[in-house]
Design the sequence.
């Protein structure tokens, strides 16, 4: 078999740097995912409320997130705020902000869809039992919503983890950037290293995303 | 590490909470505000950048932020020990030493070099930055430290040393969208060009003998001739000579003046020849040292 150039990963501290890069990606995405889940639930509930002005705002928010590429959002938050307001937000904070901004909107929409899919009779029965709105949501609707949400949100979460590769555009050195650095530094001695190194990166992303989907399957079974 | 994570978590939460409040508080004004934000970001490219740090401020802080490439060997890359290295970094190290400050390297991409300077997030860009008129309107360039031009490579048994040697039926290979294509189309309209979209295609076509010569950036053709036996760069420097120079935020006079004085001082000790011999000689060979290096 041809030399795939995986050996370049074992030169010096290369492999350690790759893992460090992976940690940067994981840290940014997990913090953003946590924020997105918490606030996404809130935004999702707000989306189902029958207030026109609230609906309008949240619709615009969701559309902004859908229309704007994450890269543009990153540039606006990292460079744009410095230019306009003189704020010096660190690259990591900008990344977490952008990914949360994105995650909350999409998570909110998933939550909205899940709540809408719950039969009206569930609400009516809860009200008939004398529960108020808050109790109905907290004890009856949200537990059922969360169960329906799991498969949907896994897509979003893994997508967020993979999209963190964009943060290299604001100077954060994450796993994919480290991979490119390693490939380029060895371009002459090992021209085929790209294949091997990217294969390892693929494996690393898999190792991060797979437990999440396993957890989802477990939770889905348990809560079903 | 946990503490750092916690800090980020809280800062992230804070920001989110802030937006959440503005989102709900501003009501219907929100969408117009957001929209105007976006347009200002794009159009304020030429707005006053007050963000830069003067020479004294850099010295006082003890650290200089220098933007370099981290994956463009041999100009700026990260070696196997995680240290920055390359032709640009060799210069950066010296600048830091002479300023008496520590260097904080920022990994930049070709697409965000100007943004970094305009927002003052880096003090100097040393990322193989070619001086062009358009860029000079956005940032201030110091004196150049390297030449780039076009080059023409041809098989060693039929070396083309002048574009006049090319016969009426011969074809020259170029990559679409490169300066080589523009230059040849404009100045030598009689030469037939064979255009390819990607580097790899052009390379294969040239190796198969589809064209008598291949025109591209001279650093590219020189590296090609060194890596592949049987090819010679007949014309190492063609057309308009472009240069590569350090860049600072527009209007940062103190830093620019210091940089220019420093580059002159370095020129008198033939610093960039030493730099070339330390970083580029493996890729480009000793022959092209004087073609590529600029000393002030």
Sequence:
């Amino acid at each position: 078999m041809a030399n795939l150039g995986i050996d370049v990963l074992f030169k010096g501290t290369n492999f350690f740097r790759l893992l460090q890069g992976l940690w940067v990606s994981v840290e940014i995405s997990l913090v953003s995912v946590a924020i997105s889940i918490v606030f996404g639930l809130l935004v999702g509930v707000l989306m189902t409320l029958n207030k026109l002005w609230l609906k309008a705002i949240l619709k615009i928010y969701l559309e902004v997130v859908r229309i704007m590429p994450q890269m543009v959002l990153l540039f606006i938050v990292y460079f744009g705020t410095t230019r306009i307001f003189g704020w010096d937000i660190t690259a990591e904070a900008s990344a977490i902000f952008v990914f949360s901004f994105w995650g909350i909107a999409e998570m909110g929409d998933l939550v909205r869809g899940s709540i809408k899919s719950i039969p009206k009779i569930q609400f009516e029965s809860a009200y008939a039992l004398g529960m108020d709105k808050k109790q109905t949501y907290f004890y009856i609707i949200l537990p059922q919503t969360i169960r329906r949400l799991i498969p949907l949100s896994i897509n979003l979460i893994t997508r967020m983890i993979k999209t963190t590769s964009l943060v290299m555009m604001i100077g954060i050195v994450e796993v994919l950037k480290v991979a490119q650095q390693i490939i380029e530094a060895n371009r002459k001695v090992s021209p085929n290293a790209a294949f091997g190194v990217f294969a390892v990166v693929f494996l690393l992303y898999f190792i991060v995303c797979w437990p999440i989907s396993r957890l989802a399957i477990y939770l889905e079974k348990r809560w079903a | 590490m946990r503490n750092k994570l916690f800090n980020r978590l809280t800062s992230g939460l804070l920001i989110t909470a802030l937006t959440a409040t503005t989102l709900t508080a501003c009501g219907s004004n929100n969408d117009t505000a957001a929209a105007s934000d976006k347009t200002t970001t794009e159009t304020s490219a030429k707005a006053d950048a007050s963000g830069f740090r003067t020479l004294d401020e850099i010295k006082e802080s003890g650290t200089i932020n220098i933007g370099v490439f981290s994956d463009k060997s041999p100009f700026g890359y990260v070696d196997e020990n995680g240290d920055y290295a390359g032709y640009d970094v060799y210069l950066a190290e010296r600048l830091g030493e002479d300023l008496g400050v520590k260097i904080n390297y920022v990994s930049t991409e070709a697409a965000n070099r100007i943004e970094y300077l305009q927002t003052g997030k880096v003090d100097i860009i040393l990322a193989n930055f070619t001086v062009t008129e358009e860029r000079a309107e956005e940032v201030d360039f110091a004196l150049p430290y390297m030449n780039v031009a076009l080059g023409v490579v041809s098989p060693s048994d039929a070396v083309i040393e002048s574009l006049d040697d090319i016969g009426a039926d011969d074809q020259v290979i170029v990559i679409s969208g490169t300066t080589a294509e523009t230059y040849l189309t404009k100045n030598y309209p009689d030469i037939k060009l064979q255009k390819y979209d990607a580097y790899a295609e052009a390379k294969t076509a040239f190796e198969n003998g589809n064209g008598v010569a291949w025109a591209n950036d001279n650093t590219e053709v020189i590296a090609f001739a060194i890596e592949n036996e049987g090819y010679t760069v007949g014309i190492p420097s063609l057309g308009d000579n472009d240069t590569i120079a350090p860049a600072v935020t527009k209007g940062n006079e103190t830093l620019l003046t210091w940089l220019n004085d420093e580059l002159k001082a370095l020129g008198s000790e033939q610093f960039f020849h030493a730099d070339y011999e330390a970083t580029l000689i493996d890729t480009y060979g000793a022959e092209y040292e004087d073609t590529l290096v600029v000393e002030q």
